[in-house]
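Our preliminary data section would be incomplete without showing what the modeling component actually yields. Below, a chain of 244 amino acids is followed by its predicted structure, encoded as C-alpha cells that our downstream tools consume directly.
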Amino acid sequence: MELHSLDRRQFAALALSALLHLVVTILLTMDNLSALLPEHTEKAMEVEVVSEPPPKPAPMPEPEPPPPPPPQAKPAPEPPTPVTTPQLQKAQLAEKSSAPRPTPRPEPARPTSDGSGLSADTGRFSKPAPAAGDLSQSAQDLVLSQVVRMWRFETASLRGSDVTLTATLIVNRDGTLSGPMNMSAPWNPDATIHGYSKLPDGITKRMLETFLLALRLAQPLQLPTDDGKPWPRRMILRFRPGDL
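Predicted structure:
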C-alpha cells in the first residue's frame, strides 16, 4: 500500500517536471521564432507641406480716361486779297460811320470841261438813241458790250421800270477814256455822276456807281478799225438797264 502511494507521487513529480520543461521549451521556441520573423516596420508616410499660395493682389483700378481735348478754334479765314479797283460809295459810307467826327459832305458835282459824265432819268425810252459824236452805232454797241461784261449789277431789279442810264464818253485812240472816267484817275464819282451828292442811297445810286466802275475796268476798250478821223472822239451811250 505504501509502495503504491510512493509511485503515484513520483509519477506526479515527473509529470510536473516534464510539464515545466515543456513550458520552458515552448517559451524558448517562441523567442527564437520571434527573432526569425521579419521585423514589422511601419512605413513612413511622406507628407509634402505645401505653403498656401500668396493672396492675389487686388486689381489695380482702371485709369480714368483723359479728358477730351478742348475743341480747337477754327483758324480764321485768310482775308481776301484786296482788289486794286477803287471802292464804291458803300465803303465811303462805312468810313463816315466809323469816323469820330462827321466828314464834310463833298461839293456838288460840276460839269466836266469835256462834257463827259453819267446820269439817270425815268423818261420814256423805247430803244437806244443813235450814236452821237464821232463814232458809229456799231462802235457804240461794241463799247457797251465790253462795259456790260465788267458790270456787277443786278439789272433784273430794274426790269419793267423806266430808269434810263446815259453815259457821255470821251474816247482816246488807245481805248482809254478822258477825264475823271480814265482808269488811272482818282476815284471820284462826285466829279463824274451828275447830282451824285444829292442822290439818296438806293438802287439808282448803286447802278451809277457800279457802271462807272465797269467803265474803268473795261479800259482800254477795243475799238473798230481806225477810219483816219482825229482823236479823241465823243460817244453817248443811252440805254435802259432793265432791258438787258
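The two ends are 190 Å apart (CA to CA). The helical segments are 2-36, 89-98, 137-150, 203-217. Preliminary results of this kind motivate Aim 1 of the renewal.
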